[in-house]
Amino acid sequence: MALKKVKGNFERMFDKNLTDLVRGIRNNKENEAKYIAQCMEDIKQELRQDNLSVKSNAIAKLTYLQMLGYDISWAGFNIIEVMSSNKFTLKRIGYLAASQSFHCDSELLMLTTNMIRKELNSQNQYEAGLALTSLSCYISTDLARDLSNDILTLLSSTKPYIRKKAVLMMYKVFLKYPDALRPAFPRLKEKLEDPDPGVQSAAVNVVCELARKNPKNYLSLAPVFFKLMTTSTNNWMLIKIIKLFGALTPLEPRLGKKLIEPLTNLIHSTSAMSLLYECINTVIAVLISISSGMPNHAASIQLCVQKLRILIEDSDQNLKYLGLLAMSKILKTHPKSVQAHKDLILQCLEDKDESIRLRALDLLYGM
């Protein structure tokens, strides 16, 4: 037995690893297909061996070949075998291969349920995180139903790393198994006020994505989001929240009146152009929805137009286009405010970008 083990280790010295494969492909450009065909045969031989380290080396090479467009679906059982390894370094290779080659209709997924459940309940946060990351790429309706409670339990983990991944994974679960949303919603709501900013940001992302389909269901969360908007310094999260408020305002006019001041403060203070644009967009939407109940909003419109002028004067063509686009929205309700910047819009008619010229022409026509 010992002699056989020594012999196996000696033979492994001559196995090509991933680096050798990549180098070989680069050195065989003229007969690449023939070279890869030979490598495939070598890999199949390696997968027949009992040594799991040899198999993981073979799976690593197959994963690279899959990225080049080669079909590796025939190695599904071997991938699952490497995924089940007790060594994290080998396990990681298997889960990476699964995330790239498995899909929600893969017949072999039924063999992974108990293995993934075991990983989710692991005391090692990186093993649980690895399973969550990989599962998000190929989760099926059956896996979502069978593992939803295990993933939901991870929302209460003491480790922020796990809570964040579990929150994001729940969104994939909801898409495949909508029945999980109702029992999970209270726990998800709690994560909006999680002490860890990463978990909090993940929860905001999930709720905002869910609200895109039916904003009315998330109107009750407006106080929580309002608190986040007025206290957070995370620009990415603020953009998500402000977009959500833009969708909620038509459903609740009183909310719009409360939003004007904090949005105006953000417009004054932020140096991030992406956040500035979303604030202006939402202010415009809010003012349109509450125009009958709030006549004294000329100052807010003037502020928006002045900031949009900065965007239009910017050398970045994308910002210039977005500035003109937002100006056209203001033109519908406050034409005089836009006409005051007619000179700038006329300059855009000479821009080298055709889309900017067309957008400026539309504005002038509207005037």
From TrEMBL:
Keyword Kinase in annotation: no
Describe the location of the Clathrin/coatomer adaptor adaptin-like N-terminal domain by residue ranges: 32-367
A biological process from GO = synaptic vesicle budding from endosome
GO CC list: AP-3 adaptor complex; axon cytoplasm; endosome membrane; presynaptic endosome; terminal bouton
Extract the Pfam families matched here: Adaptin_N
The listed locations are: Endomembrane system
**Which protein family is named in the record?**
Belongs to the adaptor complexes large subunit family.
This protein's name: Clathrin/coatomer adaptor adaptin-like N-terminal domain-containing protein
Look up and give the organism this protein is from.
Answer: Ignelater luminosus
From the broadest rank down, the organism's phylogenetic lineage runs: Eukaryota, Metazoa, Ecdysozoa, Arthropoda, Hexapoda
